[in-house]
Amino acid sequence: MTITVRYFASLREALGSEERLAHAAGMTLGSARDMLIASDAAHAEALARGRAIRCALNQQIMDEDTAVPDGAEVAFFPPVTGG
């Protein structure tokens, strides 16, 4: 089982536009983030727990405790403001 992970704004610059991630039963948005943080130094820096990062599941902003179904699209992006 896999999910598609997309990155936007400064995260896209650091990590690229998207990647595939193996999906485990019971995965949440938060555990997906933790798995990515543990994968390498670039992900650890870009997605660090001290950084304000928003997450979305299938194009809807969600909390990190939201379950991720197989085949889902997960997105991470920094908070943005309009002007």
Automatic annotation (TrEMBL):
Keyword Nucleus (UniProt): no
A molecular-function term among this protein's GO annotations: nucleotide binding
GO cellular component, one term: molybdopterin adenylyltransferase complex
Entry keyword Nucleotide-binding: yes
Matches recorded under Gene3D superfamilies: 3.10.20.30
Top-level division of the source organism's lineage: Bacteria
Keywords of the record: Nucleotide-binding
GO biological process: Mo-molybdopterin cofactor biosynthetic process
InterPro entries registered for this protein in UniProt: Beta-grasp_dom_sf, MOCS2A, Mopterin_synth/thiamin_S_b, ThiS/MoaD-like
Homology family: Belongs to the MoaD family.
Name recorded for this polypeptide: Molybdopterin synthase sulfur carrier subunit
Species name: Roseateles aquatilis
